[in-house]
Amino acid sequence: MSIYEKIEEMSNRLVRDTPRRISSRIVLYSSGAKAKLKNAEYALSKMRELSSQSDNITTSTDQDFLISEKLQFYVDSFFAFLYSTFDIISQVINQKYKMGLNEKEVSFDKVKRKLNSSHQGDSIQVLFNKVSAKTFFKNLDKFRNCSTHRRQIYIKTTIETATPGYSTSGDIRIVRRVLCDDPLSLNPKTKRNRELIEYCTSMLDKVKSEISKMSLKI
């Protein structure tokens, strides 16, 4: 069963047990969670398309934007959309548990605090705390914070030339992009060697796994 089917199943289950006023919001936010995940997937697919290109070796058909500018847009979008999936799932929990938070006040952190104060020991409370303690989640939060509130995420791009003679088209030129270790640092480093596509793919898979678990616990 896909993550989208699991969210849909969660929505259908919750709707059966809640008044219409609440159930309509649960359906709305469940659809929003699926949409944000799909947006993140689309951003990653565009990053893959651009990953072998660079401003130096590719002529863009779009005269208004460089390859690097388009890639940067999709990277920033990816992290913003991916993290917002947790915020929107938190909207569902706000409705399910009748927390009373206004829509514009809901966030993963605020709902986690509500769960900790009023629902100690509940499976969803335990899961929220486990997720928030994981390294991937902390990194996702940093990348999202950088792209949304600070500046563009730092990406180091290098172009490598392979040994001549192994391609009939001449030199083999390989574009490699690495994400910074700490996106909140003004002096970014890349010692962790986070290859862009590989790292983002892993991040997406981990988010899907956690959202899948949450959809079963809510």
Q: How would you describe what is shown here?
A:
- The chain has a 3-stranded antiparallel beta sheet.
- The radius of gyration is 20 Å and the shape is elongated.
- The chain has one domain.
- With 218 residues, the chain is mostly helical.
Outline the fold blueprint.
Blueprint: H1 3-16, H2 20-50, H3 67-96, H4 108-118, H5 123-133, H6 135-150, E1 155-161, E2 173-179, E3 194-195, H7 196-217
Antiparallel strand pairs: 1-2, 2-3
Helix pairs in contact: 1-2, 1-7, 2-3, 2-7, 3-4, 3-6, 3-7, 4-5, 5-7
Question: Percent of residues in beta strands?
Answer: 5-15%
Work out the number of β strands: 3
Strand order of the largest sheet: 1-2-3
Average residue-wise pLDDT: 91
What structural class results from the helix and strand content? mainly alpha
The value of Rg in angstroms is 20 Å
Distance between the termini: 18 Å
Number of domains: 1
Order of helices and strands: HHHHHHEEEH
- Unreliable residue stretches: none
Helix content: 55-70%
**What shape does the CA trace take?**
elongated
Largest sheet properties: 3 strands, antiparallel
